[in-house]
Design a protein that fits this description.
CATH superfamily of the largest domain: Glycogen Phosphorylase B
CATH class of the largest domain: Alpha Beta
Helix content: 40-55%
Number of domains: 2
Low-confidence stretches: none
Number of strands: 13
CATH architecture of the largest domain: 3-Layer(aba) Sandwich
C-alpha cells in the first residue's frame, strides 16, 4: 500500500519512523512518502519536506510566517493529489494536519491520525472536525480515550511510543561521547530557534552556582553548533548531538523545556525542572485558552504536580536555582523516582508502535 505520512517536529519524526518500521513488517510492499525528518527518511520514505522548515511557535510567530505556512499547505495538497496514497497518516501537528485531513477526505482518501492533537488542553471544539474528517484516531495518553468518549467518538488507545524508544535505547550502549569528568546536569532547551533563544540563556545563567557539575546541552539536529555558540560564548559548556538519551542516562538532573522531552526525561528516571517562557502576547492569549492545570506531560498524566514547572515570570535565576538544589538533594530525588515508577505503570506496557501498525493494517484490509 501507499502511505503518506505528515509529522511536523522532531518527536513526530521519531514516532512516525517507529510506526513505519512496524508497518513494513506487516506490509512488505509498503511505499512511504512523507513530511518529516531524517529518521523517517532512514526507514525508506521519500522525504517531501523536512520538519525544520515547518515549525513555528506561538500565536505571533504563526501570524508572521502565515504566507509560508499557507504555501506549504497548498503544496502538500497538490502533492497528495498527484500521488494518490491509499491512506494519509497524520502525526500530531494539528494546525497543518487538520487542513490536510479536510482535503484528503474530499478526495476520498482514508485518513488515520496517530498521536492525537492536544485538543483536551485547548480548542476542544476541534473534536467535531476530527470526528468528521478522521476515519480512525490512535491515542497515546491514557486519559484521551475517555476524553473522546464524552463526544461519542471511539478511538484506539495504543500506549505511549516513548516507552518503546526508551526501552530500545536501554539495551544499547549508554556511553556518552564526552571525556570523563564531573557529574552532569543536562540542558534540553528545545529544538526550535525561538525556544532555544529564550530558554538557553536562562538555563546557562545558573551554571555559576554549580562548579562541581558540568552542564551539557542536548543539541537539536536542526540547529548548528555555531547557533548554540552565540549563547554559550565563553562559558565552559559542552554540546552533544544525536545523544540525548545517552545524555539523560548519564545525568544527575535536567532542565527541560516543556514538551515531549519532559516525559522522556522522566522515563529515564532523571529528576527535572520543567521550564517555559514565551512571548508576552502569545502567553497571555494561551493562558486564556488553555484548559489544563499543567504544561508538562508528566504532571498531566499523573494529574498532580510531581515535577516542578517554572512558567513565564516565575522562570528566573532565583527560582531555577532553588528547584535544582532540591533535585540534587537525596530525599527529594527518592520521592520523585517513586513517582516516576507510578507514571510508567499508568502509561501501560510497551509496544505502542506495533499495536498501532497492527490496527492500521487491519482497518485498511477491512478486518
Amino acid at each position: 500500500m501507499k502511505y503518506y505520512i505528515i509529522a511536523g517536529e522532531a518527536s513526530g519524526d521519531l514516532h512516525a519512523s517507529n510506526l513505519m518500521r512496524e508497518l513494513k513488517l506487516r506490509d512488505p510492499g509498503a511505499e512511504f512518502r512523507c513530511w518529516g525528518g531524517d529518521l523517517m527518511k532512514a526507514q525508506g520514505a521519500e522525504l517531501v519536506k523536512h520538519y525544520r522548515d515547518l515549525a513555528f511557535m506561538g500565536f505571533t510567530e504563526v501570524v508572521m510566517n502565515l504566507r509560508t505556512i499557507l504555501g506549504n499547505i497548498e503544496f502538500c495538497k497538490k502533492d497528495i493529489a498527484a500521488h494518490r496514497p491509499d491512506v494519509l497518516i497524520l502525526v500530531d501537528y494539528p494546525g497543518f494536519n487538520l487542513r490536510i485531513a479536510e482535503f484528503a477526505k474530499a478526495q476520498n482518501i482514508k485518513v488515520f491520525y496517530y498521536i492525537s492533537p492536544q485538543i483536551w488542553a485547548w480548542k476542544q471544539s476541534r473534536v467535531h472536525k476530527i470526528k468528521r474528517l478522521v476515519d480512525r484516531m490512535f491515542v497515546i495518553l491514557p486519559f484521551e480515550k475517555d476524553f473522546y468518549k464524552k463526544f461519542d467518538y471511539d478511538v484506539d488507545f495504543v500506549g505511549h511510543p516513548l516507552l518503546d524508544a526508551v526501552a530500545g535505547h536501554a539495551i544499547q550502549s549508554s556511553a556518552l561521547n564526552l571525556p570523563l569528568g564531573k557529574p552532569v546536569i543536562a540542558l534540553l532547551p528545545g529544538s526550535r530557534k525561538q525556544e532555544i533563544a529564550t530558554m538557553l540563556p536562562l538555563m546557562l545563567g545558573i551554571k555559576k552556582f554549580y562548579p562541581a557539575y558540568r552542564f551539557v546541552i542536548a543539541g537539536a539536529p536542526s540547529q548548528t553548533k555555531e547557533y548554540y555558540q552565540t549563547f554559550i560564548k565563553d562559558a565552559d559548556v559542552e554540546i552533544v548531538y544525536n545523544q540525548t538519551y545517552q545524555l539523560l542516562q548519564n545525568s544527575e538532573a535536567a532542565l527541560v523545556t516543556s514538551g515531549t522531552a519532559t516525559l522522556e526525561t522522566a522515563l529515564f528516571g532523571v529528576p527535572e525542572v520543567v521550564c517555559y517562557k514565551g512571548g508576552a502576547i502569545s502567553y497571555m492569549i494561551a493562558k486564556q485558552l488553555i484548559k489544563v492545570k499543567y504544561i508538562s506531560l508528566v504532571n498531566l498524566i499523573m494529574d498532580r504536580e510531581i515535577v516542578k514547572e517554572l512558567i513565564q515570570n516565575e522562570l528566573d535565576e532565583e527560582h531555577l536555582k532553588a528547584e535544582l538544589d532540591k533535585l540534587l538533594d537525596s530525599v527529594s530525588r527518592e520521592r520523585l523516582l517513586n513517582d516516576y515508577a507510578a507514571l510508567k505503570e499508568k502509561l501501560g506496557g510497551a509496544g505502542a508502535s506495533a499495536k498501532a501498525a497492527e490496527l492500521m493494517t487491519a482497518y485498511l484490509k477491512g478486518v
